[in-house]
Amino acid sequence: MKSDVSEMEGGEGGKGGISCGTLDLNALPQDCIAAVLSFTSPRDACRLSLVSTRFKSAAESELVWERFLPSEYQGVIPSSLCFSSKKELYLCKNPVLIDGGRKSFSLERGSGKKCYMLSARDLFIVGSDTPTYWTWVSLPDSRFEEVVELISVCLLEIRGKICISMLSPMTHYKAYLVFKATAGAYGFDFQPVEASVGLVGTEGSKRTVYLDAERDRRQRYQVVPRRIGLFRRPRFLGLQPSVPTRASDDQYPKVREDGWLEIELGEFFNEGCIDGELEMTVLEVKAGHWKRGLVIQGIEIRPNQCVSDS
């Protein structure tokens, strides 16, 4: 059986269309077109909405965008939030605060996979209830009401947990610590930090990362920090060759679109058939150096866009 697809012709007034053999797809009922589009992807639905006015109306129907949303989305989104359509909810630019403002929820636009960020208040941070170690502040560029700023600690320990059932099944996830550094930050230059991601009760995957927000500036000006004094706090004593390091670029923070920094902690594949909790950790408990100046917004868990999930 032979089927010929004619050339797509666009034009003002929505007169363009698609025909397959002798069948004009624009002649199909709008509900039928919407049902077909619901089996495509959000990106394809938006592209096909340009074909004609009939396709545009079908592509914006609730049937299509209801299919793109996670099946349990109504249990995640607070009932107090109102959206004019399912499409508006799906394409919402700002993450939605859930769990009393302790987490944020959003969708990865290309796939509809679920993304979360655990706020600093939702994390276990050793010493965060002691003002001489950490202090809680509000920043206008944070999505959460509070972030926590490191005043001075010797041992750094940050842990976050999320129920695996909250994540999208059959999806590769990566976890990121989202933070920034104050002008007086110290103690993280060339100092490795151990990060891990895995099921609670298991060892999980581990990697070494660096929370060095000033790395680019030091590489540009070849500045090397020297630690002197009782607490070995850094003082810049001049311009000297950089300390050699074998760390790769993905072990250092990257600037996000929102202006914060993020560092990858590890990855996890959710098969969708495992119960329990996923735990993410950030530890520096061996060197004994005093540290200061990190501002923690939270830990983000989002789908790995470089991996195609089947």
Compact overview of the structure:
This protein is mainly β.
Name some characteristics of this structure.
nine-stranded antiparallel beta sheet, 310 residues, disordered N terminus, five-stranded antiparallel beta sheet, elongated, mainly beta, single chain, 35% strand
Shape: elongated
What string, H for helix and E for strand, traces the elements in order?
Answer: EEHHHHHEEEEEEEEEEHEEEEEE
Largest sheet: 9 strands, antiparallel
Unreliable sequence segments: 1-15, 226-244
- Termini, distance in Å? 30 Å
**What structural category do the secondary elements indicate?**
mainly beta
Tell me the β content.
Answer: 35-45%
Assign a percent range to the helix content: 10-25%
Total strands: 18
Per DSSP, the total helix count is: 6
